[in-house]
Each structure stands twice: as C-alpha cells, then as structure tokens.
Amino acid sequence: MELEGPPEQRSVVTLRDVAEESGVSVSTVSRILDDRGTPSRTATATKVRAAAERLGYRRNVFASNLRRGATGTIGVLVPRLTDAVMALMFEAIERAARRQGYFAVVATCGDDADAERRATETLLDRGVDGLILATARIDDSLPASLRERGIPHVLVLRTDGVSPSALGDDETGGYLAVRHLLDLGHRDIAVVTGPWFTSSGQDRLRGAQKALAEAGIDLPDGRVISTGYGVDAGSEAGYTLLRAEGRPTAIFAANDNLAIGIIGAARNLGILPGQDLSIVGYNDIPLASRLPTPLTSVATSFDQIATTALDQLLSPQPAGVPIKRALPSLIPRASTSRIS
C-alpha cells in the first residue's frame, strides 16, 4: 500500500518494514499476517498487527498467489441471480471462499448450454483456480469437458453422477415433504416438480413417490406437473390443478417459488392456503416464513453445501466418493394443516 505524502516520499510498506517496527523476524510477520489461517491471539501477534495497521501495510494477495502458481480466485457459475436460491448459494460460496483466503466471482448463463460454455471460458480466461457450477442441466457436456481438460470443478445443488458434487439430499427432502402431508391425513396429493433436466427435480419427485408408495397411494400422471422453477410457472401449475374437477387437498411444490405461485393462484380462486389447501415448498428461502400464510418448506443448508464444495475443490478427494449430500429438514408452518 502506498503511504500518503509527496510523490517523491511515497513508498510501499513491506513485511520487512513491519518486522523492524515490531521487533520480530520477517517470517514471524508473514505467518501472523497470513489471513488464510486462524488468527493468533498471542501478545506478539497483537503487536505485529498493530504495527502493520500503524504503517498502513496490506498483504499482497496477488503476489502471494503468483508464488503458489494460483490467483486465489474461485469462479462460480449460476443460471441467474434473480433466483433467490442461486443468490443464497453464491453468497454461501463467497463466505466459504473468504474463510479459506479465496475470492469468489460469479457469472450467469441462463439455462442455455452454449451460454454456459461461454461463461465458463470467460471465467477460465480470468485465471480462476477452479470452478463451482450451480447450473441446473444434467444433459449438458460441460462437466465431462472439464474432467477431460483436468480443470478443477465441483457441481453444487445438482449432480451428473460423475463430477465432484455437493448438494442437498433431494430424494430425502421430497420424501419428508410428502410424508408430512400424509401424516396430516392427506391422500389426494399433487406434485409440482422442476424441469425434467434437473437432478433436483427428478430426485424430489422420486422421494415424493417413495412416501406415497409406502402409504399404498398411487400418484396419477394428472397429479404431477413438471415445469420451470419460477413463480409464474407455479401460478400456471396451480391454476391447472385447482381448476380441475376433484382438485387435490395438498400440493408439494419442488421449490418455494413454485409454492408462492400456487398460493397466489389458490387465493385468486377463493381457496385459502393452510385451510382449504395444504402446500409444502422447498429450500426455505427467507420469504417463506414472511408470507401472509407462512410456508411449510424443506430447508436446505446452503452454507454446509458451500463449505463441502470448497473442500472438494481445494483438497484432494478419495477416488469413487465424488458426491456429498447434506440432509434437509422439514420446517412446518401455517400453509399445511390436518385435513378435515
């Protein structure tokens, strides 16, 4: 960092300057001021940090990383940041990266495979040390391409079954959601799941089917709608299900946006969520508990997934164990009730 003063008097504060100021060795200063580790609380450490602050020293992360052959930057790819789940996931990754002395940068690509590849190459061109992909498709070729090129990467919130992946246990989550509805006495249950090309949508539906099968209940094709993950998609699915003759008494929506759309459709049709219709969402985004009728939802631990993903990306992983799943939990609220 440059000190204030006339141009001819300005200089860069170095580790040696801090060492001389605090009366310790350069190696001691380097170790204490390396913020990638747990901060030391010793008297020497306190003295060194005080000297560094007095002199205006800033650690040169870029130079340090160059010496290690790295940039200290993690690239994160998401479909969009307007989606609350993607925003929450990136924030969790950024926190996890910061704890390990890395900086996370994000790129968006929508749901288009070509845009995904272009965004990936842009991140790689910026010299990122590795990639974390929160993109949703399971039919794209990008993970295989990254494996062939030896590029460190981890998938989050989904898996292709081969690349290292950190995600929630979506099948268990789907099971918990529908088991909750069954325990409340519901037998006519519909499922609004995500797109067919998402592992999360497929796994949550599989979990729902497992719970229904255990109860001896069939899930007819007319009670399953596969759609996008947005609020508008949920609203459209809600109208389709709730306008039909013999509407379901309960709906499991495979994310909270879908559930919010269904709640809106229900209210417009004069159907009261939590009374006339039970609804369960997924991910437990912050808005879920703040709705006029607080939403029962399956909570996903984004911070646990992010920490696991960083560990997978930055540490050698044992062969044959690339997929790690965080257990979800059901949060009951007023949008579900016992059937009359």
From TrEMBL:
Gene3D superfamilies: 3.40.50.2300, lambda repressor-like DNA-binding domains (1.10.260.40)
One Pfam family named in its UniProt record: LacI
Domain HTH lacI-type: 13-68
Record-annotated membrane-spanning stretches: none
Lineage: Bacteria, Bacillati, Actinomycetota, Actinomycetes, Micrococcales
Name of the protein in its database record: LacI family transcriptional regulator
Keyword Transcription: yes
Species name: Microbacterium foliorum
Signal peptide location: none
Entry keywords, A to Z: DNA-binding, Transcription, Transcription regulation
